[in-house]
UniProtKB/TrEMBL annotation:
Protein name in UniProt: NAD-dependent epimerase/dehydratase family protein
Family matches, as Pfam families: Epimerase
SUPFAM superfamilies associated with the record: NAD(P)-binding Rossmann-fold domains
Domain NAD-dependent epimerase/dehydratase as annotated: residue spans: 4-212
Database matches in PANTHER family: NAD(P)-BINDING DOMAIN-CONTAINING PROTEIN-RELATED, PROTEIN YEEZ
Spans traversing the lipid bilayer: none
Origin species: Arsenicicoccus bolidensis
Gene3D superfamilies: NAD(P)-binding Rossmann-like Domain
Amino acid sequence: MQTVLGANGQIAVELTRELYRSHTHDIRLVSRHPQKVHDTDELVAADLTDAEATSRAVAGSEIAYLTVGLPLDTQLWEEQFPTMMRNVIDTCVEHGTTLVYFDNTYMYPGSTAPQTESTPFAPNGRKGRVRAEMTSMLLREMEAGRIDAVICRAPEFYGPGRTSSYTNTLVLDQIKAGKRPLVPVNADAVRSLIWTPDASRAMALIGNTPDAYGRTWHLPVDPHRLTYRQLIAVASEVTGRRIPFTVLPVAAFRLGSLVSQPLKEMSELLPRYRGDNVFDSSEFTRRFPDFAVTTYRDGIAQVLGESR
C-alpha cells in the first residue's frame, strides 16, 4: 500500500496517476474530502492535524507521500503545518512506514546564488520560517535514525490542469484567456520552474528507489531556464500572435496588498522575483539519467493548448 496524504492537489493527483502507471495499483488517498483518481483507489477522510486520524489513515502503508497544501495564509500555515508534520512523522515511526516529503524552496535565501541541496536555510519571512521548521523537524528525525524518509524539493510550479502558481495565474492563464500577462517584478530575471507532472513522476521514482532515501533531492527542471520575457516569446511562437505584457513592480503589489489578501500574502515572496532564480537539479540528473524532463516549450504549448 502506498498512501498519498493531502490527495486533492495537482501534484498529488499526478503523483497518484504515476504510482498507478509505473509502481502499484494499491493506492490510498487521504484528505479531508478525498476523491478517486482510479476506480481501485482507497479513500480515507482524515484531518492531518488530528494525530489519531493521521495514524488510522497511514496504518498498513509501506510508503506515505506528504503532499498536503494549504491556502497561502500565513497564520494558517503557522497553526497547522508544523502539527501536520509532527503527526505524520510520529505515525510513520509507529507503523514502520517510509515517508516521502514534498517540499518547496521558501526556506532558501532570496538571493541570486544557485540553490543546491546543501544551500543553508535563511528564510526571509513567516511562511519561509514555517517551511524551514517543518523540514528541520524531519531532518532531525532522519539524522537520529527514527524514520526512513526522503525530501523531494521543488521550485515554483507551472503546469496543466489546476496548477495555481503565480506563473500560471499571472502569465500563462492570462495568455490562455486572451488577456495581457502580468509579470511579477522583473521580466529579465532567469526563472527555474518545474513542470508539475515532472515533479510528481520524479517523486514517485524516488519513493520507489530504496537507496534514494536518507537525503534531500532537488526535483528535475529544464536546465535551459527562461526569463519571463523569453517565456512569453515562446508563447507568442506557440500561439502565432504577438503577446504584449505588463511588468508589475513591487510598488504595485504593495498598493494592491492594501485591498487584496492574496497580494498581501505574496509580498514575502517578491524578493525572489527581482533577480535570477537558479535551482540546481543536477544531482537528480546524475542519479536518474534516463528521466526525460519536459522542456519549457513543450510545457508552455501543452498549457496553452488545453481547452478552457
